[in-house]
Amino acid sequence: MSLDYHCGIATLIFMKYLLSGIQLGKIFLWQKILQQRKSLPIATVEKRLLEEVRKNDTLIIVGETGSGKTTQLPQFLYNGGFCRDGGLIGITQPRRVAAVTVAKRVAEECGSQVGQRVGYAIRFEDVTSNMTKIKYMTDGLLLREALLDPYLSRYAVIIIDEAHERTVHTDVLLGLLKRVQKTRSQYANKQSNVDLMKANFNTLIKREENGPGVGNLQQCQRRNSNPLKLIIMSASLDARGFSEFFDNAKAVHVQGRQFPVDIYYTFQPQTDCVDAALLTIFQIHLEEGPGDILVFLTGQEEIESVERLVRNRIRQLPEGSQNLSTFPIFSSLPSEKQLKVFAPAPPGFRKVILATNIAETSVTIPGIKYVIDPGLVKVRSYSSESGIDSLITVETSKSQAHQRSGRAGREGPGKCFRLYQESLFDKLPDSTVPEIKRLDLSNVILQLKALGIDDIFGFDFMEKPDEKAVIRSLETLFLLGALTDEAKLSNPVGQQMARLPLDPMDSRAILLASQFNCLKEMLIAVAMLSVESIFYAPPDKLEQSRAAMRCFSSPEGDHLTLINVYCTADEFFEKSLASNSKEKAEKNLRNWCKENFINSRSLKHARDIHSQILDNVTRMGLRVTSCGDDMLQFRRCLAASFFLNAALKQPDGIYRVYRSGQMAQIHPSSVLFRSKPECIIFKELVQTTQSYVRNVTRIDPLWLSELAPQYFGVQE
Ligand code: CDP
Ligand code: MG
User: Fold this and answer.
1) Whether residues 342 and 237 fall in one domain
2) Which of 364, 369, 404, 411 is the best mutation target for the ligand 1 pocket, counting ligand atoms within 8 Å of the beta carbon and taking the most?
3) Are residues 85 and 119 in the same domain?
4) Alpha helices in 366-503, H assignment, sequence order
5) What is the pLDDT of residues 433-448, one digit of tens each?
6) Total number of domains constituting the chain
């Protein structure tokens, strides 16, 4: 029945196109999409799902990846009338790429432009309008929206997608939404007087009096006459935890479609995953039948290096075998590039998709028959002992390995090549530890405080974070000036920090920079450090790329070096724009990047982020002044904000982090790798086989007690 309904729309649109007499190609594309939609496992249970959502305010939906949950359910709800009262359907994703690509796909399925009925919002990018009814967004962004609209009153339905990923934002949202939903139901159940609202939203109302930009009560009263429908979607088959957390909420299963996948292991352990992956790609290409290859890699750097190596090796193949093309997909890839992985390979070509763990469950790429899984994933990890957040590469869990191999069997039987020994698989942990157990919580605690939730230990988390980690994060926020002695949000510093969509230390640096007269420089530094790898060094042109990097490098460190790159690029762009169209100037900039061994993708992303943060700080009324050539001011400002990441050189040339006592070396990619100054601050700590600090700047150790007496003044 319900499918006929879609066909009805199809006919209408078909007529529309026919009447206008154009775009026959589009019609075929649309029909193809319609066919695909009809064949998704979820299509057969549309009616039942709608009934369940009507009956239950909270519903857990569990279904295998590729069954159609993310793209179809919001459309079912829209067609089922859930937006009739003017409310929105919001769907959260742990990853930006997923929010963007899925929104674009669903807009296409609806026959409209993204930003109209279907839109998306991610940090630094909002593609929605007042016509938008289905809004995809990151879980972090919805959490941020709660700061402005604590009752999430714009939403009729909120879908927390990919809940099995258990990101820290998803976990906090689950607790928050439980509260919001209860209050909205009570309100809807006629006890709609302001006293009740006040009792329930005691803390939130307090925020309204004090805090910035919180939605007002009348607005909430007007909009919140309906209870909030909450749907939790997960690809992991165990729904029990979610159901229990939501007072035994109903859970339904959507059947997936899975063909058999043969699993292969290596005989020997592999020390060089990139090399092993490369060999396997070509082995499949030359020896196996048709079908695309999906390779799981740890990050942008690794993906780009494999991409270059594959391209080089293709050239060495006989002409008839060169029909292989690579497609990268990772979070910080610009969205127009992300979408390319979904397009079919050029005729006669085999696609090799080089992906981070984003392709595990978040996005489904059609055509995959072969999966290469080195069994590694890069994760953030926080030690509450040391207070240091680091990026580490770890082995996947068994459930991740299953998800990965499953990607080969969506459309037919497939093969998965695990680049490790079978005996190792048995030793992998069953599932991944939720982020809330292993991440620095200062950012979310700041946001909870900004929401008026002061009692962090009393907050209803699905899984409680470690007490030590919470205390450590509270301490960090206090030392950064965001919290008062009583652990309340400070005014104005804490409140302003909560408004910036950045890590607390970055936010602190931005706020301080306006006092140090170097906000212009700090905005650039923060934007450049928000993206991965600005420089690239192809193995066959190492010398030239190093020489290019030297032109920008500053003896004071990586922050200043990155500012040099940004400013030189900006100057080049502006000059080029003076005598060219915007498109031409952008093209010229890309060429300039190539000549200078700068990653143009990353630079473009950094420029976009820069303009967004600039917008934020201007709206906050901060004055954007520059310290000109006096970069001492800038480095002092870094010391005043990143003092918790300060490290001192030891006689053996290794650095000791003040706060934790941890020993680390300067990463070889840093401009300070050789000069090794006495005292440094760093942006992050990376752990591979060794501990490295990355993005490092030289400071004077005497500045620490002068500029951060709250921390260094008391230590004798
Ligand atoms: O959420 P779930 O994993 O259950 O499935 P989905 O993301 O809704 O994907 C359903 C189907 O839509 C997949 O089989 C993809 O082939 C297709 N899809 C696509 O072609 N392009 C996208 N950008 C997203 C999905
Ligand atoms: Mg999905």
Assistant:
1) no
2) 364
3) yes
4) 398-406, 422-427, 442-450, 467-479, 493-499
5) 899 998 889 999 999 9
6) 3
